[in-house]
Amino acid sequence: MIGMQTFLIILLALAAIGAVVALIRGIVIFLRTSSADLKGGPDGLNMSGVRQNKMMRMRILFQALAVIFAVLLLLLKRSS
Q1: The total number of structural domains that make up the chain
Q2: In sequence order, which residues have a C-beta less than 8 Å from that of residue 37 and are 6 or more positions away?
Q3: Are 18 and 58 in contact (CB under 8 A)?
Q4: How far apart are CA 80 and CA 70, in angstroms?
């Protein structure tokens, strides 16, 4: 069971790092937003907003994975 615990800890750390990276990328995209980006293109699509939303979804995905790995790790430790 120690091998499985180590594997879950590594996955938990990777998911946490992924969440932090997605958060930082989203903040950088937000800071680079110009007034032209806010007005959107000819089709009215705000590409900066689309990229920010994509980073938000990625952050939420990584956070959910981290929570799942943490719960699995706790359940594994509880049963042993």
Answers
A1: 1
A2: 46, 47, 48, 49
A3: yes
A4: 16
